[in-house]
Amino acid sequence: GFFDRAGAWTIVLTRSLACSMPEAVVCLAGLAGMRLTTFVLALTLGSVPTGFVYAGIGAGWAEEPVLALVASWVLPIATLPIALYVMRRRSRA
Description:
Blueprint: H1 2-14, H2 21-32, H3 36-60, H4 65-92
């Protein structure tokens, strides 16, 4: 039921998070039988912007690798509450 209501948004919002949460969500989507087209679209919408953000961090702070590393570590932690809030709202709708 959860992946029918909020599965796509869950995948999109968790792609930038740290640790193994994005992988766990993807595995659960497969176990729940999420449609392949919805899954691929959500995965793309979550992964491509995340890749560009991290590439921009690396390119922008190439002269300051410690700052780039800290930003890459803090960014997912800072976005976690937002992702959890949106996932909760979508699952209730």
